[in-house]
Amino acid sequence: MVEAVTADDGGGSRMSTLKPYRVVRYYGGSNNRPAAAASFYDCDCIAGLAHFEKKIDVVVTSPPYNIGVGYNSYRDSLPREEYLAWMGRVGSAVRGALADGGSFFLNVGNRPKDQWVAWDVAQALRKHFVLQNVITWVKSIAIAKADAGDYPAVAGDMAVGHFKPVASDRFLNDCHEYIFHFTKSGDVRLDKLAIGVPYQDKSNIGRWKRAKQDRRDRGNTWFIPYETIQSRKDRPHPATFPSRLPEMCIRLHGLGNTKLVADPFCGIGSTAVAAKKLGVHFAGFEIDRGYIDTAVARLS
Ligand SMILES: C[S@@+](CC[C@H](N)C(=O)[O-])C[C@H]1O[C@@H](n2cnc3c(N)ncnc32)[C@H](O)[C@@H]1O
Questions:
Q1: Which atom of ligand 1 is nearest to 240's Cα?
Q2: Domains along the chain?
Q3: Model confidence over 53-103: pLDDT tens digits?
Q4: Residue 15 confidence (pLDDT) above 80
Q5: What is the CA(63)–ligand 1 centre distance, in A?
Q6: What ranges in 30-167 are assigned the alpha helix state H?
Q7: Is any atom of ligand 1 closer than 6 Å to the C-beta of 87?
Q8: Distances in Å between the alpha carbon of 108 and those of 79, 87, 162?
Q9: 240 lines ligand 1 (CB under 6 A)
């Protein structure tokens, strides 16, 4: 059950000085946790994060990539140096708002003509964080039966997931992006089995000291396809990630250690959808009120 309320209500936010534009309360979540709320702030994320000193447990976000995407309000084409300097300032603001044992998951992709964007952004954050994990988000993959060998689940050659076709004989279709997992110290303990996978070969259970149950670390390649949509109006934003992506990040950090999740560039609220599903508080920053209104509608 969810309930959308206006900013005047002020509920849901743990911060009193910054008024949210919209708040959505939700109850339970899939883990039957106490009531929680998503608070959406219609402001610049650096200004907003300044109100959350060390209060946020997990940040999951995808910033503009500076590749000319047509957002409603934001112009996605700064001079490269200016863009990277801004990303550095965002990193510094996230560091100030993140709890000492928190996790910052930053999703960035490249474009065919510029394969350095993601790594340049990661580099801009280097002075603020330790890079604890690098996860490759696989949007689409082709597996040939001949390469899979005896795996019973692979019945024939297959290609799963959606990707952006590249009309060029120089560049390959773009089927993956990065999720940089930054922490303050590099030694944040994770709940790896919360997003674990079953052993393919069950004889491994018990054979290895650490393999006590039929679940293992899934590793740092995550296959998360986009949901299929019939028309643009089903996804009224030009650059979203599937809500399963932030859900996996939050679960990996550990639900037991997570009260408040934030997304500094929250768009139409994919991270908020994950927070609601998991029953944790959410704070989102977005300069475009139209996107926030869509996020609220998605949660409701
Ligand atoms: C890549 S999109 C994020 C999409 C989001 N992950 C989703 O799935 O809906 C980046 C968003 O950042 C917003 N944005 C740009 N500059 C911002 C700023 N200074 N503060 C907050 N949001 C900003 C843009 O309007 C855009 O919606």
A1: 8
A2: 2-139+175-299 (3.40.50.150)
A3: 999 999 999 999 999 889 999 999 999 999 999 999 999 999 999 999 999
A4: no
A5: 6
A6: 45-49, 80-97, 117-124, 145-148
A7: no
A8: 18, 11, 17
A9: yes
